[in-house]
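Data card: per-record layout.
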Amino acid sequence: MEQLVDRRVEAAVQQALNQAMEQGIIGVGNGDGGNNGVNGTVVSQVKASKPKVFSGKFGVDPAVWTYYVDLYYEISGVKDEERKVMVAASYLVDRAATWWRNLAEHARVSGVKPCNGKWDVFKEKLIQAFRPVNHVKLARDKLATLKQYGSVAKYNDEFISLCMQIPDIGEADKLDRYVRGLKYKVKRDVELADPKTVEEAMNKSISYRQH
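The structure for this 211-residue chain is written out next.
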């Protein structure tokens, strides 16, 4: 019975760590043997979640996608510039895949590497190709109507993605918008905790589903 509980605790810790890294709340050690311990349970390694595919669909900010790819590279220890470009290209589909094929073909004819084999060049070109001119306004409009219909984790992910597209949004506005969008019971629980930051509100909303 104790072993079953330990396994459940370890799984819960692993999930929480993965979520925190995806949200940029915590970083990851360099693999030198440092471990995180919770209630005597040791988590020896945290694996990075693979990036989602990027299609170039309207309304999906490429800068947010490249941000998560950067996190994936950091956690996975990928440092080679050309490898970063080629791995990221493998996650492109639909319109984005067509864009990459044309870019790669043009580079081949010119006798050079696509994006000169530089990850920063790849990111810049991708963002220029697929980020709408009015992307900030679009993000604000979506944030104004964002509601939690599914899990807290999904709502948090959508909320963070939108906030990342609005560089001048303040902490007070983020907190107000976040709490307003929660389901009624979760919202009530979070409001009673009187959080001062979005991070505190997110931590409270995540703990609610464990009650």
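Known properties of this structure: The first helix runs from residue 2 to 22. The mean pLDDT is 79.

See the next section for split statistics.
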